[in-house]
């Protein structure tokens, strides 16, 4: 699955799923543009480290994807975009009647509207090269729902619908668009939640993971960032050239229930 000569832009990629995806694409030979909303020395050092490790070009571009103009500017500043992975996302949990309006607006802006803006900016670049891959990191919550996550679920359902429309608009070109729908993935953010859950529920680590955090995930195992990255790399390969407009669940059976 060589992606040599391709440039991949991965949003929200200085940690977690985005970083795992970026590393898998670099391993396949793609040049990388990493992104997040911060602009720290360690962000740029992360790109330099990936470049050295995999022998590819890599750089970091700061962009706050809650701003549509900044999202489009990210693609313009990248200079090329053969592969676009829309991964950036945030979460907030509250009942609908108590859900802060500013949190609703920010979640919709980052999790959904940024996908539209980056895609709109990337498609002309892909068409000029006669090839492109768009992978939207949605969620099991793009296919199902849970209480108290109204904005996140609305956004992720929107991402799944937008993925289908993008696929239809590019169906006669060598451009594909698909969504990956992870269940619970073991990221540093999730790992950091485990000790608090252990205290709250009076359980050991294994019990908390199995009976609390993975209560809805039948496999009772977290997905890994490497698995999400590998799925992304596959969707970018020629083997997946006729896979477009679909969702691939990496959720341990969650959405099979």
Q: What's this, in brief?
A:
With 257 residues, the chain is an alpha/beta fold. The chain has helices spanning 16-27, 41-54, 68-78, 101-129, 150-169, 188-201, 205-213, 225-235, and strands at residues 7-10, 31-36, 58-62, 83-86, 132-137, 175-182, 247-250.
Number of helical regions: 8
Beta-strand residue fraction: 5-15%
Sum up the overall morphology in one term: globular
Overall structural class, as computed from helix and strand content, comes to alpha/beta
Query: What is the share of helical residues?
Result: 40-55%
- Poorly predicted segments: none
Keywords:
seven-stranded parallel β-sheet, 257 residues, alpha/beta, Rossmann fold
Walkthrough of the structure:
By secondary structure, the chain is of the alpha/beta class. The protein has two domains: 7-184 and 224-249, Rossmann fold (3-Layer(aba) Sandwich), CATH 3.40.50; 186-222, no CATH class. It is built from eight helices and seven strands; from the N terminus they run E-H-E-H-E-H-E-H-E-H-E-H-H-H-E. It has a seven-stranded parallel beta sheet, with helices on both faces. Strand 4 (83-86), helix 4 (101-129) and strand 5 form a beta-alpha-beta unit. Helix 1 crosses helix 8 and helix 6 (188-201) crosses helix 7.
Secondary structure layout plus pairing:
Layout: E1 7-10, H1 16-27, E2 31-36, H2 41-54, E3 58-62, H3 68-78, E4 83-86, H4 101-129, E5 132-137, H5 150-169, E6 175-182, H6 188-201, H7 205-213, H8 225-235, E7 247-250
Parallel strand pairs: 1-2, 1-4, 2-3, 4-5, 5-6, 6-7
Helix pairs in contact: 1-8, 3-4, 4-5, 6-7
